[in-house]
Sequence to fold (548 residues):
Amino acid sequence: MFKNILFLSIAVYTINFAQTDIDSSNIYAFYYNNIRYEIVKENRNWIEAAQIADARNGILAEINSREEQDSIYYYLQNAEINIENTIAPDGGGASYVWIGGNDLEEEGMWIWDGNNDNYGPQFWQGTFSEGNVVDSLYNNWGNEPDNFSNQDALGLALTNWARGKAGEWNDLQSNNNLYFIIEYDNTTIKIKSYDYSYDQKQINIKPIIKSNYDSIDVLINENQFYSFVNIKTEDSLLSIPYPNVSSEILQLRIFAYNLGKIAVSKEFKIEVLAKIGGFNSYVTDFEDLPTQDFLCEEFEIGKPFPFRNNAIHSIHDYENSANITYTLLKPIIVNEVNSVMKFSEVVIVEPGDEGSLFGDKNFKDFVIVEGCNNLGEWKSLLSGYDSREFPEWFDAWNNGALLRNLYKTRILYLTDTFDTQDTILIRFRLYSDNEINGWGWTIDSLQIQDVLSDIESMNINNQFKLFQNYPNPFNPSTNINFTIPKSDFVSLRVYSSQGELVSTIINKKLNKGNYSINFNGEKLASGIYFYQLNTTLFKKTNKMVLLK
Fold:
């Protein structure tokens, strides 16, 4: 098991760290790949162990390869551990040490979070036999990964148990008092969050600072450096002035220096938009490749096989855990009379569970069209949707098909979301969870406030109708009337003033006609509510008041 492993050193250290209450005689240290580890032979629950690791400028060990796993287990066997002192009763009565994984934030979402800041790469999703690896990251579970919902911390077994053997991982209750392993990987800087402030016109980066640094350099687009000096562990925000004179995608990386050593972050990207001027309309069939009109790297304009015409295409297949956008850089001035946006599309993305609605946890992958009139604040122009939107798409997801024959027309209205004369940017967004990916999204024949054909579609807004409820205010019931001009899938939902879903009144296919629905708010508190009618071609929201 331990062949071909480079063991660099074994030593017992007697270093005193005043900021912790760990007895140095209980620390067994070793090195793997020039990274220091400490086996701490004192009993702590998982959260306390993570706090101690963080206070010592380390993390609970995050194991990313078979070689690292084998090395750690080798040293555990040589650390003279009394296995009777580190038993987890809920782990089959076996002995364990804590390592840095947990699903404390969300059941089944296991992340490497060795300092318990709720941030880190996810390596596993799901429970027991339905779980799966995320992003091909290393794992070494026994035969029962996450089999109990109250076991939220990761232990590395020192002895066998009924469903696993020594050296494998098991999920344990975080209140077990166990020994633990600290890792001191100071070669990598993790980034907790980053964004662009349009009000302050600056880039904001929040790195996870584990030790003091003489200086930190932020590299922008491989040609600009912005430097910070004397960075302390308590410094949590790096702000860089950056006027948004044009729309662009910034590529950034952090380099941190201390006593001749360097730590480097992974490259990350920030989209910066500049809303300049305004246009009454925008029309393209994409044949002239208007790439300069859009901003993104994960979409492109082209005609991959078997398509015969140029169109917007997401990456095929798109990746798991994606959140990619394609932004039209020409701002649109919303027209009072003709606010129609029309395009053709094919959407083959992972469908949500049967009966799931947009916003539900089990809705899974989706595409959505969004707009913003205040940079950085995006609003949906319609609810997100997936391959269940049309039977042909759903069949293609399950069985495959010639995708160029599956284009469907989408029509929406900018005035359903924005006021007339608002100047807005519009983007297309594809989101995927970390489970199953798919082919993706293509968009063609984009027409915004200048629809060139299909007069019948132009009149749809006059045929679909959602009337004001009556009575209004009401107590406790009211009638909601609407008209649909053709057979369609219809949802009618009620939301609170905070945007929380209160009731799904209708969620099924209806024949064309006039409808009157009684809504009873007997169990609701007085206040303002919103009811929304949504079909494949129409969306409208009205306000109503419950007054008891």
In short: The first strand starts at residue 9 and ends at 11. The longest helix spans residues 66-77.
